[in-house]
């Protein structure tokens, strides 16, 4: 009963999406306010029905109702409750349902929290959003329906890949989807602006919070996915340039560019066409990511199914939306009025450089991801484009970007003074140089390349903070005065500095973990000792493991530093019973920002065990940096002045003295 | 029926989301130009602040002020006229909302949905609706029906209990074993099986009830291995590590070399103290056949499970060929065939018992009496 | 600067960035990619010693030999040809004899494949796409073995 009701709610959501896509659209064209206001109610109702539908599927999973084919294939009555719930989106059909649920969530949020949005723009935005919903709801109902039933119902379910029974994997897809799908809002705004024919500072301000929200989620999602791969796959790697990773990274790069170009658009009404184009590109890349992952064009851990009809269906969706958007763009972009002028050396100029580098980097990733597919389709030749390609292309693009980032906030709008900006950044430059000199003295020339990376990271971190220090007159005024100025700075300024600082932290982590990563593979017997850096690991012995769905063997290690025990670690080899799958669980211990990583290989009969031990210098900074970046995004999002819609006069008179 | 009512409610709600805004008078909406203007005013005041703080020079500030003011003036152009037009009656739209939405939704649902499933609860589908394939569910259902009619048949409960255990339906196994004890009286084996069912039902934690059952079992037979196994486990679970190690060591020392639970016991012992040898892959908690195969059984297909049950019965039959003096075994076999719906096999087994026990009339008498109770061998 | 000059500066900046991106991509494509080969290909046309290749096939039955300190020797076969391989490190959980494997590395002068990466995916019935095609070509393909995984999800 509940399951069928969920199924019906899904159908109703499709019907409402159809209504929401057509009625307000014609209302907007005819200037009919009542027809336009249908957009909000249907958007909210669409979300409510999809939430019902999702809840029904979750119920089927929790109750282990194996008459639902999706549950029977992806769950098991003995599975822990948490993984029954996360199993809902641990498969193709359920994850697509989550996708449209989030799409509808964003639509409902726009409907509910955009009081200042003009009705026409709102109706157009929501109807574009509704059309995306129609496409994906049709896709679900026709080719990926999670509510299909089995009669007779099987007695037991077929479980979930044990590798997917993991809390990281439970959180990572929803975050990523919030990011991916969040990009649909800026897309919808862009299309609406093209149809409406007007785009100005207000438009940029309305889009900003949605882009920023999507960007925050995308950042978190990618970062979590990276950490998951790091600890779960047991190779100690944190980024593989895997096509699936790339397909989430490309929208991130484009969204980052969009965030920055929207600033220019708001302040100076320049880069209008470019901003619209970026908004379309960002969502197109999200759709492309969905296509690549869902169609099975790529074989990867993340690809749930290889079903050609699904692939073709998503390809059609991709072509219709991307093609339609670009066609609309081509015909309407010319009608948008040109904005303000600026000199090459200016805040605008810096942001243009940012955009150029980010989109060029994004394009190299796109080429690396699609080239093997295209080559195979055209010539049948099979190649793989791996890390070396991306190191050679993406890396060099990032260097000028990182060098340029601290300059941006110091340059004035319209016409900037690069010499003055350079003087204000002297301290950051000094700090970076100091790091290089100290590093060279300690490690010698072989470390030069790594030290260059470290210098970049420090330049970026100190440079971002310099801007704040300058604006609050740190050291040039009394501390109290600086504090007062700091508190008075808009939160978006703090957000910028924090996010740039976070990028620096991540860069530092990437450089250090790549350059000063030591890896040892040894065969140990119980009682034997190995050393890595200034620590030793003693293999104490085997520990048998058993849990409800697996058995296995752990190996206990004692870690000593200068003779003192500092930690014990227990990497495991597990054998899941249903299905019969072996997995390796690495053990990780954090020392400061660095980590010791131990993973097990084969165990021979006499107890000799192949052990792989890594020392990862400052590796946690990679993910901590992304958290800092996200915090910067949230800080900027919390800036009242830039929040949804324009501030009302009454509120403004209150807000001004506080700033 | 309930489903259709609920669906009707949902449909009505969907139609209302379209009808309500159509019937509501239009409110004054924020205009695009107004929003843009307030942003420009905002930018002007920000500019003034920046100038005050000395962030930008006098000349630049003036240029920026002029530019923003110009934009402000440009935006004064009126929005497209969206007000003061006679509102149509929306007859067509309303009709569509009331008729088209339900029609499309119901048609689409009937095409993809399976309303016939509506009234089957998940558990009901699994437990009380045996499928036509004659699989394990049907067999159990038959035994359950038999026991529903004769709830005082202790032997029936005793046969059913291990089957429940194998299928992972531990709560049912607890009930079945409890009935067995009540109807047939306590023995060491029954107490320890009861305790095991309790333990498995609570996720392999030896509860207070389970422990008292095991302790009772040991009163009947101090060497009862299953009870000792679980008591040792319970010591480990309650953190009394040294006692647990002692108990496991004693249990392992007294175990026959081919005991199936031996490796599990060794694994448990090993878990209490890290050892220098590679442990064999430990089973969960697995004394005797009852628990050892459960994990495997749950993952089997119905056909495989049935095979397993058939295997149990066949094993019993084979054993009785070599040990015909096991009167209770004969009785169990007859009963198993009967409840499994194989009366011909039951008759054949009775014939074999008669042949094997022809020298031992007193034993045969017991079997004959049991057969009479069960209702076979009338001729 | 005039409006025209400003625009020109911007366009040339964009041109420089684009050109360097294209240059980097072309350079990396000539150097940073690896070709997929099968054991038959390797024997018929051995790749140059500095050329990185991905070798896909089945791990030959009885070929795995484990030596000290994580050195593993095995052989990759496609039913027609067999290439001996050597790898140092921890093999994936699903690396087994008779199972599909993709190894990345270089072929040395003696014809030994020095693998630096060995991949076997996380599903017992999974087989890398390239391996399937290589095996199909050599007639070693048994669809009943590999079909199960996708069947299980899509039926």
Features:
heterotrimer; A: 659 residues; 6-stranded antiparallel sheet; 64% helix; globular; C: OB fold (Dihydrolipoamide Acetyltransferase, E2P); disordered C terminus
Rg of chain C: 22 Å
User: Structural class given helices, strands, pairing of chain A?
Assistant: alpha+beta
Output the number of helix runs of chain C.
4
Under the CATH scheme, the architecture of the largest domain in chain C is Beta Barrel
What is the arithmetic mean of pLDDT of chain A? 85
Oligomer: heterotrimer
Main β-sheet of chain A: number of strands, strand sense, barrel status? Answer: 6 strands, antiparallel
Notes on the protein architecture:
The complex is a heterotrimer of chains A (659), B (379) and C (155). Helices cover 64% and strands 12% of the residues of chain A. Chain A has 659 residues and is α+β, with helices and mostly antiparallel strands. In chain A, the strands form 2 sheets. In chain A, strands 3, 4, 5, 6, 7 and 8 form a 6-stranded antiparallel β-sheet that branches. In chain A, strands 2-11-10-9 form a 4-stranded antiparallel β-sheet. In chain A, β10 and β11 form a beta hairpin. The longest helix of chain B has 22 residues, at 2-23. Chain C has 155 residues and is α+β, with helices and mostly antiparallel strands. Chain C has 2 domains: 1-32; 35-141, Nucleic acid-binding proteins (OB fold (Dihydrolipoamide Acetyltransferase, E2P)). Chain C is elongated, with a radius of gyration of 22 Å. The chains are: A alpha+beta (659), B mainly alpha (379), C alpha+beta (155). Chains in contact: A-B, A-C. At the A-B interface, α1, α2, α6, α8 and β4 of A face α1, α2, α3, α4 and α5 of B.
